[in-house]
Amino acid sequence: MSKETVTKKIKIWGIVQGVGFRPFTARLADRLHMKGQIRNMGGLVEIYLTDTESRIEGFIEALKREKPAPAEIVHVAVTNCEKTDFDGFSIVESSAGDEEAAMIPADLAVCPDCLREMRDPGNRRYRHPFISCMICGPRYTITDRFPYDRDNTSMIDFPMCRECSGEYSDASERRFHAQTISCMDCGPYLMMKVREEEGGNLCDAAADLKGGSSEANELIIEKAADILKESGIIAFKPMGGYNLMADPLNEEAVRKLRQIKNRESKPFAVLFAGVEMIKEYCRMDEVEEGLITSPARPIMLLERKVSGHAELDRSRFIGSFLPSMGAQYMLLEKFGGPLISTSANISSMPMITDDEEMFEMARGQKLIDAVIYNERKIRVGADDSVVRAIDSQPQMIRRSKGYAPVPLIIPSAEKGMIFASGGQLKNSFALTKGPFVYMSQFFGDMDSEASRKIYENNVSRMSELFRIRPGKAVCDMHPLYYTTAFAEKYAEKAGIELVKVQHHHAHVASVMAEHDIKEKVIGVSFDGTGYGTDGAVWGGEFLLCEGGSFERKAHLKYVTMTGGDSTVREGWKSALSYRHAIESGSYKKQAENEILGDIRALIDFAEQHATLRGHEKAAATAEKAIDMGINTIKSSSMGRLFDGVAAALGICAENTYEGQCAIMLEDAAARAAAGKSAGQADDLALAFHKKIAEMILSRCLEIRDETGAGCVALTGGVFQNKLLMEETLELLRAKGLRPYYNISVSPNDGGIALGQAFAAMNG
Question: Fewer Cβ atoms within 10 Å of its own Cβ: the N or the C terminal residue of the chain?
Answer without folding.
Answer: N
